[in-house]
Amino acid sequence: MKPESLSERFTTSQAGERLNIVPATIKNWANEFMNYLSPSATPEPGRTRMFTFEDLRVFTTIARLRRSKTHIADIHHILQSGERDELPPAAGKSLAPYPPAMAALKREISDLNGELERYRVENEQQRGSLRTFEKLLEQKEQRIRDLYREMALLELRLREATYKRPRKSENASSASSSESEGGGGGIEATKVFSQE
């Protein structure tokens, strides 16, 4: 078998065949992890994707991490750190071509696997958004609890103030009644004195 050259370039289907990964998944990963791939892996619209050996090492690393259920965000961190797996040994070419029915099934499986991977990525992104939303919700709930506590304290102070007020008015009314009694006695005494 002809040895692989490090300068060799691979199309999406060749990369998928070399790594035993369906082409649709290769495309999804190329879009999601484009920052760690060569420029030819994500070309301008209308140009063919071409992957380098280093790109294939990135895909090999991603494949291992996905098999171990590593989250997308964690895979980004690992790739950012420079971690790369070695390529698996190249398998020999199949001697007989697939019958048309088998080829159609293989294409369908490839498409479904690609869709599944896309849904997994979207699901993880939504879960990240959900975690942010839950944190925000928790903060709002805590604020509501704090406000309820403040409201309860204010109600308590209001009750205390209302309870103390009648006592003051009672004292004031009893003082005014005693004054009127004393004042009345003075008038009577004046009347008596003037009659004499």
From the structure above, extract its key features.
disordered C terminus; mainly alpha; 70% helix; 196 residues
Layout of strands and helices, then pairs:
Layout lengths: L11 H8 L3 H10 L20 H15 L4 H9 L19 H96 L1
Kindly, what is the distance between the CA atoms of the first and last residues, rounded to a whole number of angstroms?
150 Å
What is the general shape? elongated
Find the count of extended strands (DSSP E, 2+ residues).
0
Structural class: mainly alpha
Helix proportion: over 70%
**Biggest pleated sheet:** none
Number of helices: 5
Q: Beta-strand level of the residues, as a percent range? A: under 5%
Overall average residue pLDDT: 77
Low-confidence stretches: 92-98, 182-196
Order of helices and strands: HHHHH
Could you tell me the radius of gyration in angstroms?
Answer: 42 Å
What does this structure look like?
With 196 residues, the protein is an all-alpha fold. It has a domain at 12-90 and 100-131. It has helices at residues 12-19, 23-32, 53-67, 72-80, 100-195. Residues 92-98 and 182-196 have low confidence and may be disordered.
